[in-house]
Amino acid sequence: MKKLLMLAAMLAAVTTATAAAPDAAKIEKTYTTTCAACHAAGIMGAPKVGDKAAWKPRIAKGKPALYASAISGVKMMPPRGGNPGLKDDELKAIVDYMIGKSN
């Protein structure tokens, strides 16, 4: 019985983690429609996604700093990349996506 309860608890944890995981296709689409206008070409000083040298000092500041910049805006970048409909969790997932492509 103990093993069955443990198995049920583990299954619930995996199911919850999977359900909470961000949708990679949605993240990429939102990046493409909101962020790529500047971050794909390096417009107005935006670090180009994939440019490891440009991202290295930003990544070194830590994710909380990058999240705060994305949420509040930084230099020429408007808050939330100009998309006020983005929720914090969505924005953080996009930042993680860009870091993953640039690390």
How would you sum up this structure, described in words?
This protein has 103 residues and is mostly helical. The protein has a single domain, classed as Cytochrome Bc1 Complex, Chain D, domain 2 (Orthogonal Bundle), CATH 1.10.760.10. The chain contains five helices and no strands. Helix 2 crosses helix 5 and helix 4 crosses helix 5. The longest helix has 19 residues. The chain is globular and about 55 Å long. The protein starts with a helix and ends with a helix.
What are the main properties of this structure?
103 residues; globular; 0% strand; Cytochrome Bc1 Complex, Chain D, domain 2; mainly alpha; 67% helix
List the topology elements.
Layout: H1 2-20, H2 24-39, H3 52-60, H4 63-72, H5 88-102
CATH homologous superfamily descriptor: Cytochrome c-like domain
**Number of β-strand runs:** 0
- The Rg value, from CA coordinates, equals 17 Å
Structural class: mainly alpha
Q: Rough shape?
A: globular
How many helices? The count is: 5
CATH architecture: Orthogonal Bundle
Order of helices and strands: HHHHH
**How far apart lie the N and C ends?**
46 Å
Short description:
This protein is an all-alpha fold and 103 residues long. Helix content is 67%, strand content 0%.
